[in-house]
Amino acid sequence: MFDDRERIALFIDGANLYSTAKSLGFDIDYRRLLKEFSSKGFLLRAYYYTAMIEDQEYSTLRPLVDWLDYNGYNVVTKPLKEFYDQNGRRKVKGNMDIELVVDAMEMAEHVDHVVLFSGDGDFRRLVEAVQRRGRKVSVVSTLQTQPPMIADDLRRQADHFIDLVNLQSKIGRDPAERAARAQERADREARETADQDDY
Asked: How many structural domains are present in the chain?
C-alpha cells in the first residue's frame, strides 16, 4: 500500500488515537511511529492535533505535547471550552476537526499519500476531497473493539485501512519501559525526600 517514492503526511487526531490505543491495551511510542512511517516513503510532515485545558500551567498532556513539538511533529493545539449543560454539569469540548481538515487540504497539493489516524466518520468527506485531488488516503483505527472505533463509511472511503492492532508491535511502547520509568521516578522522588530531610 506504500511506495517508497511517495511523499507522505500524517494527520493524527490525538484524542481519537489515544482512546483507540487505550481500548487495545497499549501506549503509542511516538518516536517509533515516526520511524515506522519514515521507512515507508518520504515523510514530509507529521501533524498532531489536541485540545488542552487553557488555564492550567501544567496539564497531563503538556509533557507529551512539548516532546512531540521538539521531536519532529507539527503540534496543533487549541484551548478546551468549558460549559455547563442544562442540568448544571460541567462539560468540556475540544474538537480539532476543522484544524485537521484545513491542514490536510492545504498539504494535499504537496504529498502523494495522506495517512489519517482517526476513526471519526466526520472525516469521510475530507478523505473523498483529498482523493479527488489524486492522492491516496490510508486511515488508521481499529475494528478489534466492540463497537469498532472506526466509522464504516470512513473505512469504505479510504484507499487503505490499517488496523492499529497490526501496528502495535511496530509503534507500541514496551510495557517494561513504562515500569522502568515509573521506578526511576519513584527512586528520584525518594532521593529528593531524603535530601529535604537532611535540612
From this structure: 1
